[in-house]
Amino acid sequence: MKNFINLLRKDFLLLIRDSWGVVLLFLMPWALVLLMTYLQDSTFRSINENHIPLYLLNNDRDSLGDMVSRHLLANNIFEVSTETGERALSADELEEAVSRGDYLIGVIIPEHATERLRGKVRQGVERAFNGDDGNRTDDNTPSLLEIKILIDPKAKPSFRTSLIRAVRENALMVQNKLLLGEITRQVNRIVPIPVNLDINTNELITISESYAQSNRTNIIPDSTQHNVPAWSMFAIFFIVISLAGNMIGERETGCFNRLMTMPFSFHSYILSKVSVYLCVCMLQLALMILTGMYAIPLLGLPVLKLGHSISALIAMSVSSSLAAIGYGLAIGSIARTNQQASVFGAVSVVILAAMGGVWIPTFIMPRFMQIASNASPLNWGLNGFNEIFVRDAGFSDILPYASASLLFFIITLAISCHSNRKRRK
């Protein structure tokens, strides 16, 4: 026991020898969690507060143009302009203004758009009541109207998709209203009793959205609940660089060989490393959790709720930390130089984080990558913490993820022992 305590003291002194390295080991993950949570939470809030500059050129001045204008003006996302100075822009001037970034979006509603739509509907209904094919066209049919949307080249595709969907919905509302009005007119020509089919269909269906919740929890997922576990997993896996660097440094200075000539076994050497760095990882996770509970709310963000199962939280923290430590031990045993360990460790952690869904949700990945994400230890940790923080899960619910992390630790530990045995031979 005394020999093992001496090993622990040696590893602790080796860790704190680089005091600024220890500070960065805690400061950088803390800053990462704080920054990413704040940025992702404030993305849509900043859109709603700052508004997206949009120029509306409504040349129709009738039902279709007025409805599109009304909905865009009522939308809190857009800052709608309809004129510049003393006059409205022309279509060519608007396209030039959008292309140079004066406006993110330009919407052009052509002249007589409603009248052309009304004529199209009238001809279609008349043909239907006369027994003709309602879809047949001839030379007298008004040409299809075109609502033109101009997008700044730097705009994200999501903005374009959302705007086009909104404009299309408004156009369909007007089209349905005109269709019902024309059908009413044609029916009243046939039946003796006046009929009014001009029904307001705008609010017959309403859509509400909310997160699905089980009876056992009242936790509502938010940016804090999602981001703290994701970036905490990313942070603790960067322990591999420090751990692998220490192991390689001991080999290069001859410290490791001297230890092996003393009454120390390699297993005691590894157990000492695991114990010291497990404390570091647990302190990192504790710092991340306390940040979510106390520091993040100071920025006006939601507070982190831990759920009801502290045992599940501890089990997931320990198993994820051991997975990160085992990965560091394997890299430190296989790599020959500090440069190899630092480059491979950093890049591989980034790749595993990307695969595991830390940056991009796995459900939007290609099918192959969704399957491959199951091989990432960061994915197991992330899913386990999400079960606790988002679903308010208990110990039995996180057991598969904790077991996978522990199995990964055992495999990487075996790789480290095998690599050491092979090197000594």
Given the structure, what is the number of helices? 15
Strand order of the largest sheet: 2-1-3-4
The class by helix and strand makeup works out as: mainly alpha
| SSE order | HHEHEHEHEHHHHHHHHHH
How would you describe the oligomerization state of the chains in this entry?
A: single chain
Question: What is the molecular shape?
Answer: elongated
Estimated radius of gyration: 32 Å
Which percent band covers the strand fraction? under 5%
User: Poorly predicted ranges (pLDDT <50, ≥5 residues)?
Assistant: none
What can be said about the biggest beta sheet?
4 strands, mixed
Can you count the beta strands?
Answer: 4
**Separation of termini?**
28 Å
Mean pLDDT across the residues is 78
Helix content: 55-70%
Task: Please characterize this protein's 3D structure.
α2 packs parallel to α10 (266-295). The chain has 425 residues and is mainly alpha-helical. It starts with a helix and ends with a helix. α3 (63-74) links the parallel β1 (52-58) and β2. It has a four-stranded mixed β-sheet, with helices on both faces. The protein is elongated, with a radius of gyration of 32 Å. Helix content is 65%, strand content 5%. It contains 15 helices and four strands.
